[in-house]
Every structure is written in C-alpha cells, then in structure tokens.
Amino acid sequence: MTHVRPLAAEALRRLGALLRTTLTRRVGAMALTLLVTSFLVYSSLYLAPGDPVSFLVKGRSPSPAQVVAIRHQYGLDRPFPVRYWNWLLAMLHGDFGQSYLFHDSVASIIGSRLPSTLLLVAVSTVLIVVLGVGAGVVGALRKGKTVVILVTIGAAPFACAGGMSHDLLVSSAWCSFTYNKTTGYSHTKRVYFNANGTYGTGSRGEGYSSGSGGSMGSQRNTQGGGLWRVERSELFMSEGGGRLEAVRTVLKRNNNGSPIIVADGVEYSQCR
C-alpha cells in the first residue's frame, strides 16, 4: 500500500502533463489555422475582379483627385501587407471595421443576426442528429430491405436542397429567354453578379413582322445594374444603388442536375 499512492500520484502527474501538451498543441494549431484562413480570405477580396473604388462611388464618375482621396480614406493606397496587418490588429481588439454596404459597424451587424443564426444551427443540429442517426440505425438494423432504399432516397433531396448562396450566384452569368408565338417577339436577359456586391444586366429584345413590304425586324438593347447581397439564403437586389429589396427566388435543378433560379416567376439558367 505504501507504494500505491506514489505510483498513483506519478500517473496523475504524467496525465496532467500530457493533457497540457495536447491542449497547447491543439490551441496552437487552431490559432495557426485561423491566421492562415484569415490571410487567404483577406487576400481573395483583393484578387477578385473589380476595383473597390468603383463599388464605393456606386456608378458615379469621380475626378482623379476624388479617387486619390477615397483610396487614402479607406487605406487602399497602402501596401497590401500593411493593410492586412492593420486589419488583423484591429480585429484582435474587437474592431471588425465598417460595412460599406450597410453603412454600419460589422460587429453590430453580426450581433443583430447572431441569435437567428444560433437558433438555425441548433434546430439543424437536432434534426441532423435525430433524423440522421435514427435513419442510420434503422437502415443498419434492416439492411437489404425496402426501408434502406426509402431512407436513402428520402435523404438525398434534403442533402442537395439549398437556397441562394454567394458562391452560386458569382459562379457564372444567368440568362433567361422568353418568346411570344403570337407577336413573334423574343426577349433575352443576362444578369451577372460580381463578388464585390454589384451586379450588371443586359437585355435584348427582337421582333419580326410581315407586311406588304416583306419581313421587318426590330431590336432593342438595354443595360442596367445595381447592388446585391445574400442574407440567410435570401437574395436582395437594388437598381442603381438604391434600397435593397428581397427578390422572390426558388432554386431548382433541371434533368441534368444544373441549377435553375426562378426569380419573380422567370427562370434563369447558367450561361457565359
């Protein structure tokens, strides 16, 4: 018995040292991962096409002096490493900066949306655990029977379904085409979303009519654009930099599995 207590104490000491070492390594690896991720995300914003100044002026034509002043005001005239370092230090002190789109601090925007996000995560987690684990257990117990097929088919749409996302919209341009058999008028609209929160549109209409002088054709081309954002899988857009308004959208797939966006009753498919 006299040797048991020293051995137990030594085992606890070694276990404590192992836990501290493991915890230190995990925290260090997590901090390094966050640092590398923040650098990659911050860099991607500057590698994206378009000039931040063009987004800030919102379609206006500033003078060269105004462009220089804007770049100096937002620190865009500083070297990239300096901008990243200043942003990182500010973030570590709780200053996440200002949103150019909402004209408010990023911290307040995150704070106002955090309760809804946490609620969504909690509900999703419960559904995944209850339905996913339950379906897996049933499938394992009844392997090779019809219930396994039903569980697999029923889970597929749930895994593939989703709303609007930033990456989906900027992945390509989106086009719609309508044709009126009665009037012979066709209309093509092309929408492209930029990663900096702006979008552009191109519209082309063609009509043909027949008369005593033969067939006649007419064309009409228009251009437009504005601002956009995705919030909680919902698309918001504005024309000419005005107020952002929600757009009624439905995301579905065609027979080939390609995405189709139905916006206000009009179907848009991916195009070049």
Features:
single chain, 272 residues, alpha+beta, Lipocalin, 9-stranded antiparallel β-sheet, two-stranded antiparallel sheet, 11 strands, 47% helix, flat
What does this protein structure show overall?
The protein has helices spanning 4-47, 52-57, 64-73, 80-92, 106-141, 146-160, 166-170; strands at residues 98-99, 104-105, 173-180, 185-193, 198-211, 214-231, 234-239, 245-246, 249-253, 259-263, 266-271. With 272 residues, the protein is an alpha+beta fold. The protein folds into 3 domains: 4-98; 105-160; 166-271, Lipocalin. Helices cover 47% and strands 28% of the residues. The protein has 7 helices and 11 strands. The strands form 2 sheets. A 9-stranded antiparallel sheet has the order 8-7-6-5-4-3-11-10-9.
Helical residues, percent: 40-55%
Largest sheet, strands/sense/barrel: 9 strands, antiparallel
Known CATH architecture of the largest domain = Beta Barrel
Strand order of the largest sheet: 8-7-6-5-4-3-11-10-9
Task: Give the CATH topology of the largest domain.
Answer: Lipocalin
Structural class: alpha+beta
Our estimate of the beta-strand percent is 25-35%
Radius of gyration: 28 Å
**What is the CATH first-level class name of the largest domain?**
Mainly Beta
Instruction: Provide the domain count.
Output: 3
Measure the end-to-end span: 80 Å
Compressed to H and E, one letter per element, the order equals HHHHEEHHHEEEEEEEEE
Summed over residues and divided by their number, the pLDDT gives a mean of: 76
Q: DSSP helix count?
A: 7
Beta-strand segment tally: 11
Give the uncertain stretches in residue-range form. 146-162, 211-216
